[in-house]
Structures are given as C-alpha cells and as structure tokens.
Amino acid sequence: MQENKVGKILSYIIILLNLYFFVPYMYRSYIKIEKLKREQLEIKEKIKIVKKKIEDYNIRIEKLGDDFQREKIARDRLQMVKENEEIYRFIDK
Description:
Layout: H1 2-63, H2 67-77
C-alpha cells in the first residue's frame, strides 16, 4: 500500500517536472510559429503588389507597339512637336 502511494507521488513529480521544463519551450515555439505565419502573409501581400506592378508594366510595354501611343508618350513626356505645329502653354501667376 505504501509503495503504491510512493509510486503515484513519483509519477506526479515526474509529470510536473516534464511540464515545468517542456511547456515553456512549447510556448516559445508557438510564438515563433505565429510570428512566421504573420511574416509569410506580409510577404504574400508584397508578392501580390509586385505582380500587379509587373502586369501594369507589361501593359505599358504592349502599348509601345502602337504608333499612336508612342506619339502620345513623345508629346507628353519629351515635349516633342511636329513641324509647323504651335504649342500654347498657360502660365498661372
């Protein structure tokens, strides 16, 4: 009878020691996993943004094949004009 009580007490002590030593490690691992999941979601969002930019750039590149679009870019960005063409600019004071 006495040995049975000692065996139970020893098994409880062993269980408590295991919990004392391993639970903090498990908790830290859980925290690390959650942090990595958040980082993964952030990276996926950044990837979506970059893919959208790539699509936009590809559309712009395709438009460069059109003569009208090339002329529009040359006129707007490079301020080019055709011969005998007059340009009017409005200046605010």
